[in-house]
Write a structure and sequence with these properties.
The chain contains three helices and four strands. It has about 100 residues and is α+β, with helices and mostly antiparallel strands. The chain has one domain: Alpha-Beta Plaits (2-Layer Sandwich).
Length: about 100
C-alpha cells in the first residue's frame, strides 16, 4: 500500500527551511521505521499541459507494505506523532490518501 500526502506550505513558511527539515529530520526519522519500505517527497514544478501552476506544492509517497501494523503501532507512537506535529507546522491542509496499485 502507498500513503500519498498532497499539500502546500503555510503562508510564511520558508521553502529553504522546509527542505532542510525534510533532509535532516523527516527523511531520517520516517525512513528509519521498519514498516516504511520507501519514502520520498516531491516538489511540484509545473503543469505538463495548460497554463498556471499546480494546485499543490508537494507530494509525498510512502510505500508501507504493512499498513495495518503501521496504523496500529507506529502512527500513534512518539516518533511519528513528533514528526507529524512538526510537519503540521509547515503544511497547509494536507490530504492523506491511502492507495493501491491497480493490477
Amino acid at each position: 500500500m502507498q500513503l500519498i500526502i498532497l499539500y502546500s506550505l503555510k503562508d510564511g513558511v520558508s521553502r529553504d527551511d522546509f527542505h532542510k527539515w525534510i533532509r535532516t529530520t523527516d527523511y531520517p526519522t520516517m525512513r528509519g521505521l521498519a514498516r516504511i519500505e520507501s519514502f520520498k517527497t516531491y516538489e511540484s514544478k509545473k503543469l505538463l499541459m495548460g497554463e498556471g501552476s499546480p494546485s499543490i506544492a508537494y507530494v509525498e509517497v510512502f510505500n508501507v507494505p504493512d499498513l495495518d501494523g503501521f496504523m496500529a503501532e507506529d502512527l500513534g507512537g512518539d516518533t511519528v506523532q513528533g514528526i507529524m506535529g512538526q510537519f503540521m507546522g509547515f503544511a497547509e491542509a494536507p490530504e492523506f490518501i491511502i492507495s493501491a496499485e491497480v493490477v
